[in-house]
Amino acid sequence: MNAYYAYDPDYAADLAEQMVQALNRREHQSEDSHAYLMLDCIFHPELGEQLWQKRETLPIISLYQGSRKETVEGLSPFLYQLPVTPLGRRRELDHWLAQCRGKPMLSLLSSSLPLTVLQEHMRGFMDVRTRDGLLFTLRYTDSRTSATCLESVGAEARQSWLNGVYDWWVIGREGGLKRLGGAQTATLQAAAPPASGAYELNDYRY
After folding, report:
1. Would you give the distance in Å from CA 8 to the centre of its chain?
2. What long-range pairs does 29-32 form, CB within 8 A, spacing at least 24?
3. Is residue 182 predicted with pLDDT exceeding 90?
4. What's the whole-number mean pLDDT along residues 69-97?
5. Per-residue pLDDT for 183 more than 90?
6. Single pTM value for the model
7. If 153 and its partner were Cys, which of 72, 114, 157, 193 is the partner (CB 3.0–4.6 Å)?
8. Strands across the sheet with 177-181, in order?
9. Mean pLDDT in the chain?
């Protein structure tokens, strides 16, 4: 057990295969689906700096890009689009699982939204506001708290959030793949930014 992150570094032996099979099932159901990794580089700032520098040559985008947090790009969460070929996808999954081992920094998403549209959609849920007006960052890309973050906004906002993805998976406590949820409709839709600029925090246990 890694005491600092309170996160078990041991993945299930077949975790990469679980991911591949889950994505295959989704693509059988939804032919327009793309596969994305969501990487929280606050747990690996050196990797974050490297990804930021390579953002023009890789299918990757920072969730901070275009926001007030853009100046701390090395600590940014990133979206990375996985290859469509089985061999390329498995190679990338093995690589990123090794990079993220022991850190709660990797989630898997399936969505029909293009990379830049999915970035705008997910970025819209990074800032939340308390009822007394305090604005702060909701770090849902820390996979230990992703489920809690989803529950911390109201039901309408939560469904708008999930309407941008078919599936949102994290690595569970037992080291296997765990689905948090996804859209309840066949057609995905990116959420429009809230009129107030940030969604209201509904559950203060977060």
Report:
1. 19
2. 29/166, 30/110, 30/112, 30/166, 30/186, 32/112
3. yes
4. 88
5. yes
6. 0.91
7. 157
8. 60-62, 77-81, 34-40, 106-111, 167-171, 177-181
9. 88
* 99-118 pLDDT tens trace: 999 899 999 999 999 999 99
CB atoms within 10 A of CB 179: 12
Question: Distance between alpha carbon 197 and the CA centroid of its chain, in Å?
Answer: 21
> By the 8 A CB rule, do 60 and 79 touch?
yes
Tell me the percentage of the chain whose pLDDT exceeds 70: 90
Please report which confidence band the pLDDT of residue 4 belongs to, taking 50, 70 and 90 as the band edges.
Answer: low
CA distance 96 to 143: 15
Count of other CB atoms within 10 angstroms of residue 49: 15
Q: Which amino acid is at 70?
A: E
CB 56 within 8 Å of CB 133:
no
CA distances from residue 15 to 7, 58, 103, 106, 138 in whole angstroms, order as listed: 16, 24, 15, 12, 27
- Token match 């992703």: residue? 146
